Amino acid sequence: MTGIRSVQRALIVLRTMNEKPVWSLQELYIRTGLPKSTLHRILATLQDEHYVRCDEGMYGFYQLTSAVRHLSKGVVQQSRLVDIAGTLLIATTKRIKWPLSIGVVDGCEMRVSFCTMPYSPYATRSSSYGRCYGLFNSASGTVYFAFCGGEERRILFDLYRKRHGALAIPNPLAIRTIIQQTRARGYGIRYGCKASDSSAFSVPIFAGNYLLGAMSFSTFSRTLDDALIKKYVPVLQNTACLIGQQWQVMENSTI
Predict the structure, then answer these.
(1) Cβ atoms within 10 Å of 80's Cβ, excluding its own
(2) 5-72: what CATH class?
(3) What are 148-186's pLDDT values in tens digits?
(4) What is the Cα 215 distance to its own chain's centre?
(5) What's the maximum distance between 2 C-alpha atoms anywhere in the chain?
(6) CATH architecture under which domain 77-253 falls
């Protein structure tokens, strides 16, 4: 299937106009290569929709309006994280063959916002996108809970207790043990109950001191051993570091 040409051209114009504050029709023609008649129709349409202005007295110059900001309101942190992490995770999975995923906190659970199971010959399912995992019974949950700040940890604890009840929460000693052991290892881990079940381990994704989420490596329980962990935890940590670095570059570029 081919795209809608008029939409593609309108997006070209919007992306181009985002490069500087004011444009003439001649400048847009040179920069985009689109015919002037086409540019005139696109600009007129964008004016009708209040994304572009060419007010009286601007003498044929065009500029974007603040309305274009509304186009990015649906881009939340997880969308930006996936934009950065997606390509890196796919490249890593193609190299190591095992599936990886990104988990972000959602209420008192961890929700998978991206996974590379479709790119792995050893995936335990076709996809884990959108699946939610608990704080205390999953690799991504324990690693996020252990590495987040104290204030966020209290918020997560209170939300979890309200949703699941006090009986579902590990006792204080068990929680301290989870935090200490996970931080000491540098990763969270979940073992499946049966050899045919899936197991996983996760590492935190930091941008500086800011915790973005968790990256998980999933496998079959029968294959998860110390050798596998020793081999692939550094791979995940290196990929998580690259994600954090690119996040910081993106943040600095928007300041």
Answers:
(1) 16
(2) mainly alpha
(3) 999 999 999 999 999 999 888 999 999 999 999 999 999
(4) 10
(5) 74
(6) 2-Layer Sandwich (3.30)
